[in-house]
Amino acid sequence: MLIKAERAINRFSDFLGTVAAVLFILMLMNVFIDVVMRYALNEVSIAMQEMEWHLFAAMFMLGVPYTLRAGGHVRVDLVYENLSIRRKAIIDIAGGLLLLIPFCLLVGWYGIDFAHEAWSLGETSGDPGGLSNRWIIKAVIPFAFFATAISGIAMILNSVIALKDEHETKIDRGLL
Known about the structure:
Shape: elongated
Distance between the termini: 21 Å
Mean pLDDT: 88
Helix content: over 70%
Structural class: mainly alpha
Radius of gyration: 20 Å
Number of strands: 0
Number of helices: 5
Low-confidence stretches: none
């Protein structure tokens, strides 16, 4: 049961990683078009410039759950890599339960009001010619933090499974 739950959450995190990769390609295309317009055609588009940071922000935030799942998150690897599987699992469980999940839930919870306020006010760019519907990018914030908390649950499940020694875990493979 734990393994099935972990795998389901990991599929969700992998999907968000794919979305982040697609957003990266879209951002590259946007930057390329913006540069060509600016330097070849002498046209400046505020909307294109704002879209760059919107795509970057969404790419970054939606890539975090995948990064956590793949073990690419920041950690003191000098110490961690030399620990036993059991100690790694205990650190991951404690870090997930005491730090990661509470922080993600807190930011996600307050992010809902942040996005809702932007939506209810009809917030748009402060620059002429900028993007409308600023609530969309603000709604990515709570979604990404809740998704990171869910990915953290998978990390904790993987560590519990490692403690139970039910299957080869990401910890065994050096991925966490």
